[in-house]
Amino acid sequence: MLVCVVVFASSLWSGTTGKIAGTITDKKTGENLPAVNVVVLETSLGAVTDFNGEYSVLQVPPGTFKIQVSLIGYKKLIVSDVQCFY
Questions:
Q1: For residues 32 and 45, what is the distance between their CA atoms, to the nearest angstrom?
Q2: Are 67 and 76 in contact (CB under 8 A)?
Q3: Domain spanning 3-84 has what CATH number?
Q4: Confidence (pLDDT) at 37
Q5: Across the beta sheet with 77-84, what order do the strands follow?
Q6: From edge to edge, which strands make up the β-sheet containing 3-11?
Q7: Would you say the pTM of this structure is higher than 0.85?
């Protein structure tokens, strides 16, 4: 089974940082996956999905990032070219 990631970047309140948020689901069953680690690579930023598979990484500086998603029992997934802007 693979993990499917829905990622989007949006602006936070007026400032110089943004937010990366989305929902992690099982690609095969469509179930939302709780307790998934979501890491913005090459930064100290990250989050863990809640019971509904939703996550939100705040204080992300503008730029293009790689997001790593991992959960025990699943293959690690890296999503490239995730853009965050304010």
A1: 22
A2: no
A3: 2.60.40.1120
A4: 98
A5: 46-48, 37-40, 63-70, 77-84
A6: 3-11, 18-26, 54-60
A7: no
- Stretch 4-16: mean pLDDT, rounded? 54
Where are the chain's structural domains?
3-84
In this predicted model, what pLDDT tens digit does every residue of 26-46 receive, in sequence order? 999 999 999 999 999 999 999
Percent of all residues in the chain with a pLDDT value above 70, rounded to a whole number:
81
Residue 63 has pLDDT above 90, yes or no: yes
3-state secondary structure the chain: CCEEEEEEEEECCCCCCEEEEEEEEECCCCCECCCCEEEECCCCCEEECCCCCEEEEEEECCEEEEEEEECCCCCCEEEEEEEECC
**CB of 24 closer than 8 Å to CB of 5:** yes
